[in-house]
């Protein structure tokens, strides 16, 4: 009878240690994901219009060995549950759309958005949205981004254009044909979303619409809810290097602690395995 109790206790020890191994493994996987997010943020610290991401986590299911309120001897009830968690998992990499630092360039086609909104560009795979305002002129005179994708609506700059000006409301004017008065060439429009965090990264400093982001709302810069345009300026990345370094250290230490938990559980398994009658 005593031997049976010892065997049962030994099996319970094994099961508990195995649970600790898998739980700690989920922690290491989660911190590896955390490091992936931090690394991408740091890699894009000088990327124009880049928006940093934050890793969000969620605890996994709990194994309930005795629920709260369970009846024990003589009708008494257990005041608190006997539960053990089974680890963690990453659930989201949330894009944070806080405004980055503004950098003066003096280039007339470099524009930044002071406030809410995105530029709209047309790509081969469809419409995309960006905060990167480093625009240029292609061979046809259209305003394009660094990948050659046209700004929407299309704005054409004549070959003889001089003194290009972009107003706070996005109106683009220039002196053309030797005229003394500027000619209106077009107007930059901005786009807003109900939930910009729901946009999907498309690479190339661009985002695309998803069901979570909601449909785009187009408007004029400076109008209600839309930011204004700043000419000769670029919005840089909103990544804070010191903050990301702290996040990196936190992820590293959490990874080390979880690996230590695995080592400790393994040592306890070895002790249980070496038990003698």
UniProtKB/TrEMBL annotation:
<dbReference type="InterPro" id="IPR010930">
    <property type="entry name" value="Flg_bb/hook_C_dom"/>
</dbReference>
<dbReference type="InterPro" id="IPR037925">
    <property type="entry name" value="FlgE/F/G-like"/>
</dbReference>
<keyword id="KW-0282">Flagellum</keyword>
<dbReference type="Pfam" id="PF00460">
    <property type="entry name" value="Flg_bb_rod"/>
</dbReference>
<dbReference type="Pfam" id="PF06429">
    <property type="entry name" value="Flg_bbr_C"/>
</dbReference>
<keyword id="KW-0966">Cell projection</keyword>
<feature type="domain" description="Flagellar basal body rod protein N-terminal">
    <location>
        <begin position="21"/>
        <end position="51"/>
    </location>
</feature>
<dbReference type="InterPro" id="IPR019776">
    <property type="entry name" value="Flagellar_basal_body_rod_CS"/>
</dbReference>
<dbReference type="GO" id="GO:0071978">
    <property type="term" value="P:bacterial-type flagellum-dependent swarming motility"/>
</dbReference>
<comment type="subunit">
    <text>The basal body constitutes a major portion of the flagellar organelle and consists of four rings (L,P,S, and M) mounted on a central rod. The rod consists of about 26 subunits of FlgG in the distal portion, and FlgB, FlgC and FlgF are thought to build up the proximal portion of the rod with about 6 subunits each.</text>
</comment>
<keyword id="KW-0969">Cilium</keyword>
<dbReference type="InterPro" id="IPR001444">
    <property type="entry name" value="Flag_bb_rod_N"/>
</dbReference>
<protein>
    <recommendedName>
        <fullName>Flagellar basal-body rod protein FlgG</fullName>
    </recommendedName>
</protein>
<dbReference type="GO" id="GO:0009426">
    <property type="term" value="C:bacterial-type flagellum basal body, distal rod"/>
</dbReference>
<dbReference type="Pfam" id="PF22692">
    <property type="entry name" value="LlgE_F_G_D1"/>
</dbReference>
<dbReference type="InterPro" id="IPR012834">
    <property type="entry name" value="FlgG_G_neg"/>
</dbReference>
<dbReference type="InterPro" id="IPR053967">
    <property type="entry name" value="LlgE_F_G-like_D1"/>
</dbReference>
<dbReference type="InterPro" id="IPR020013">
    <property type="entry name" value="Flagellar_FlgE/F/G"/>
</dbReference>
<comment type="similarity">
    <text>Belongs to the flagella basal body rod proteins family.</text>
</comment>
<feature type="domain" description="Flagellar basal-body/hook protein C-terminal">
    <location>
        <begin position="230"/>
        <end position="275"/>
    </location>
</feature>
<dbReference type="InterPro" id="IPR012836">
    <property type="entry name" value="FlgF"/>
</dbReference>
<keyword id="KW-0975">Bacterial flagellum</keyword>
<feature type="domain" description="Flagellar hook protein FlgE/F/G-like D1">
    <location>
        <begin position="112"/>
        <end position="174"/>
    </location>
</feature>
